[in-house]
Each structure stands twice: as structure tokens, then as C-alpha cells.
Design brief:
This protein has helices at residues 2-25, 27-34, 45-76. It is mainly α. Helix 1 (2-25) packs across helix 2 and helix 1 packs antiparallel against helix 3.
Length: 77
């Protein structure tokens, strides 16, 4: 059972990291998909810059969490 939970957690982290990377690379497209349908007008450019910075931080956190088991196993040797 713990192996199943580990796979589910890893799949979640991969999806989370991929979504965050997409939002960091293309913040306008991500906004259009997630928020554009309910917006009356586009937000200012500063919104997209701040969104890209936040998404880049979440991408880094996702990569760190995905690489943690690998780094941990390398340090145990």
C-alpha cells in the first residue's frame, strides 16, 4: 500500500510541476485557460510578471520535491 501512495504522490508532483512550468513560461496562456473566461478585460502586464515569478517558484519547489528521494539516496551511500 505505501508503494501505491508513493506513486500517486509522485504523479501529483509531476502534474503540479508541469502546470507550474507552463504557467511560468506562458503566463498569458495559463491565465486565458484558467481565468480568461470570466474576465471582462485583461489584467495589466505586472499581473503576468508576478504570476510568472510565482509559478517559477512553485516549479522550483516541485523539482526539489521530485529530486529529494534521489538526493537522499545519494547522501546515504
Amino acid at each position: 500500500m505505501p508503494n501505491v501512495i508513493s506513486w500517486i504522490f509522485t504523479a501529483f508532483l509531476v502534474l503540479w510541476t508541469a502546470a507550474a512550468a507552463y504557467a511560468a513560461i506562458r503566463p498569458y496562456s495559463f491565465w486565458k485557460i484558467t481565468q480568461g473566461w470570466k474576465a471582462v478585460k485583461e489584467p495589466p502586464r505586472a499581473y503576468f510578471v508576478a504570476s510568472a515569478i510565482g509559478a517559477a517558484i512553485f516549479t522550483a519547489i516541485g523539482f526539489a520535491l521530485l529530486l529529494m528521494p534521489l538526493v537522499s539516496s545519494m547522501l546515504d551511500k
